[in-house]
Design goal:
Layout: H1 3-8, H2 29-36, H3 41-45, H4 48-61, E1 66-68, H5 75-79, E2 84-87, E3 91-94, H6 99-104, H7 107-125, E4 134-140, H8 142-151, H9 167-190, E5 195-199, H10 211-228, E6 233-236, H11 243-250, E7 254-256, H12 263-269, E8 274-275, H13 287-300, E9 306-307, H14 320-332
Parallel strand pairs: 1-4, 4-5, 5-6, 6-7, 7-8, 8-9
Antiparallel strand pairs: 2-3
Helix pairs in contact: 4-7, 7-9, 8-9, 9-10, 13-14
The protein binds coproporphyrinogen III (CP3).
């Protein structure tokens, strides 16, 4: 069993396992090299040779316990034939959302369109570098995907004013998302993903009263589905006010926390294994501060099943030497 699997089963491990969200990305010169000659991000995700190589890049440098497949949560709306582009210095930009178009997509067509992602997962899973480690597949939670599909770009701090105007559309889209998210999860697992992480990056935008409809129930359905396939599932409801309620209702195998929440109260309140927390901006400071902040998390969770990770993705400005230091420090703790 891998250290991450042991931790998720609530067991004590000799060392705290570690992987980092966005561990394969722009802070690595070897990634920027590939990116420079591949200006189209979607095509890069759909190039199984390059995306598998990028996935493995951080494992060649650091003693990480997992690789996360180089892809994006927005490959799902792409698979549903909504236009998705990644614009330099802007981020994702989606095209019009048409219920008619999306309703026409069938399972075969969807899998065909995203097929290179599954082949890439297969390639990584067969590589020696992943032996005794986990390969993390992932999806966006239905709510966060809905946010991008309706909003068309990052909501930054708030939703557009008329977000909920077309309730009919939202009610029709959610079950379609659920259906294709399950297909996407199943294909990733079939091809070698050994853990699934569900990213709900915009969970923090909703009021308490809307959580059951848009977050709890749709995510719970996916969590149950992953569990039925005997694969552990980690949820990351970034910015949610009450992690305890979320865990009690959604029941993931582990929960990733953001850097706004107090790890001490999380450790006290939450019984399931915890992942993450450290503010990625700490990696932009100095070794002393990195040491201090990392120790804070390691100390708080020393008697709790804990997977080290960040409270959001590695920032592009990060010096890889700082990541190296962090990984070594966690391993030596
Ligand atoms: O973590 C990893 O290393 C695996 C790959 C991964 C990417 N996106 C690659 C990516 C994962 C797990 C994601 C998830 C993702 N994508 C989320 C959830 C996590 C989070 O960040 O909250 C979200 C909301 C997206 C949507 C998305 N994709 C945005 C908002 C952006 C632009 C912002 C940015 O960081 O550039 C992307 C682009 C993106 N996804 C890049 C990468 C490496 C940058 C592409 C580039 O090189 O220009």
């Amino acid at each position: 069993m891998t250290p991450i699997q042991e931790t998720i089963l609530n067991k004590k491990t000799k060392n705290t396992p570690i992987w980092l969200m966005r561990q394969a990305g722009r802070y690595l010169p070897e990634f920027r090299e590939i990116r420079k000659i591949n200006p189209d991000f979607i095509n890069l995700c759909l190039n199984e040779n390059l995306s598998s190589e990028i996935t493995l890049q951080p494992l060649k440098r650091f003693e990480l316990d997992a690789a996360i497949i180089f892809s994006d949560i927005l490959m799902l709306p792409y698979g549903l034939n909504q236009k998705v582009e990644f614009k330099k210095d802007f981020g994702p930009q989606l095209g019009p959302l048409s219920l008619d178009e999306i309703s026409k997509v069938d399972e075969v067509g969807f899998i065909e369109k995203l097929y290179p992602i599954y082949k890439s997962i297969k390639k990584v899973s067969e590589n020696n570098l992943i032996k005794n480690k986990n390969l993390i597949g992932f999806v966006g939670a239905p709510w966060t995907l809905l946010v991008y599909m309706i909003n068309k770009h990052s909501p930054k701090k708030e939703l557009i004013k008329d977000f909920f105007k077309d309730k009919f559309l939202i009610e029709k889209i959610l079950p379609i998302l659920e259906k294709f998210l399950k297909i996407h999860i199943n294909q990733q697992i079939k091809n070698g993903a050994t853990v699934i992480q569900i990213f709900d990056s915009w969970a923090g935008l909703l009021d308490e009263k809307d959580l059951p409809n848009y977050i709890y129930t749709p995510t719970q359905n996916l969590v149950e589905y992953v569990k039925s396939l005997n694969i552990p599932v980690i949820c990351f409801p970034r910015g949610i006010k009450n992690y305890k309620n979320y865990c009690d209702i959604v029941e993931p195998d582990a929960v990733n926390i953001d850097y706004e929440v107090d790890p001490i109260s999380i450790c006290r309140e939450i019984k399931i294994p915890v992942q993450g927390g450290l503010d990625p901006k700490v990696l932009l400071t100095d070794i002393n501060n990195l040491k201090k902040q990392t120790l804070k998390y390691l100390d708080v969770f020393k008697d709790h099943p804990y997977i080290f990770n960040l409270g959001h993705g590695v920032l592009p400005e990060t010096n890889p030497d700082m990541v190296d230091y962090l990984v070594k420090m966690v391993k030596d703790y």
